[in-house]
């Protein structure tokens, strides 16, 4: 077929589609080069260069809304670009060649090897991070009991765990060593392999021990109650419920009218006032029966741009142990390229092996905005992956936006050829209580689009691993990442000129 075989209206539409696609390709190339110019100094690991180039092209493509062009391409039987994440430039060139063939304007089609090479890079980077097992892998947060109970590690491995997470915010070096010892013994006994993630505590603001005045609120907080949040326990008033926090400097940065959330959004409040080093909060969100605050629960300040170091003194100390014993280091609350460079510099100072991977935990609005830069800065130096930490992220962005943002993170990571860990409250009811709700099964099934799914600790976690193996085994043949309609992404900003 060529354009002379088409009716005039169809020939005009075909030519218009070709012109639009050609203009789009020129814009993508120009904008991608601007990004790459800024990224090139970061690419000391030259093998990551093609992936950075692909991500730059993808971001340039996703800065604009091309839904109308996608529909036109579909009507001509041409790729709609809806699954171009792994190979943006070849996909655009192939669509252009296909339109040319319809109009009689023969253009060379990109070699299949281009698609094959770029399409295989995610798999290679996943193997670097998670090993060569089937995806999605299953990561389990080890409880403190894992230091005393070697059978627990054996049961988890036999159930299907492929990666173990040791949270360095809890326990101590002796306990971490015991967990590793039991894990290595279980691997030898079962013949299975298991990667180890050591997760830095980061500047996570957590509750201290709550104080409840006698007969006040029955130990539960409900909407309308007032709660004192103090920088120190001694600052708390004695006439109302109160709790201190682990990072007093965070309290000093919060202003009146700003939101405060506790325990992954289970309890929400707004700042009504301040008394010295203590905030007075009015509860705005709580279960009907009220919520109990416990020590060690996370506190989020989504309205407050906190100025806190991503790498704390504790993290710097813990990194020495992680660099010598882990396969992956989880970077909590990383937000900027400067944060990433702090970690990379510390690992270099420690002489960490080049195979030690970094898992970027995306937990804040700023981390989402800077995701592309974070991925390139770290992956340009050592193996890298992305964790969607949906608990903190939901509180920071709002629960209504979480579904949208987690999709965008999946897309950007696929364009960067980096593996994703789908985390927080997966099958939480089953893990904690032995029974999951229907929505939790749907959520777990959605995790099959990631390269790894993380389960939290709980008394029924072995059962949850077995159930997750069953779910992913059934869902895996149905999914390979996603298909999408390309309106402009909120996180794909134009490059800096």
UniProtKB/TrEMBL annotation:
Keyword field: ATP-binding, Glycolysis, Kinase, Magnesium, Metal-binding, Nucleotide-binding, Pyruvate, Transferase
Domain Pyruvate kinase barrel, first and last residues per copy: 140-456
Domain of life the protein comes from: Bacteria
InterPro entries given in the database record: Pyr_Knase, Pyrv/PenolPyrv_kinase-like_dom, Pyrv_kinase-like_dom_sf, Pyrv_Knase-like_insert_dom_sf, Pyrv_Knase_brl, Pyrv_Knase_insert_dom_sf
Organism listed in the record: Deinococcus rhizophilus
Any GO molecular function: kinase activity
EC number annotated for this UniProt entry: 2.7.1.40
Claim: Electron transport is one of the keywords in the record: no
Protein family membership: Belongs to the pyruvate kinase family.
Biological or metabolic pathway of the protein: Carbohydrate degradation; glycolysis; pyruvate from D-glyceraldehyde 3-phosphate: step 5/5
Protein name (Swiss-Prot/TrEMBL): Pyruvate kinase
Gene3D superfamilies (UniProt xref): Phosphoenolpyruvate-binding domains, PK beta-barrel domain-like
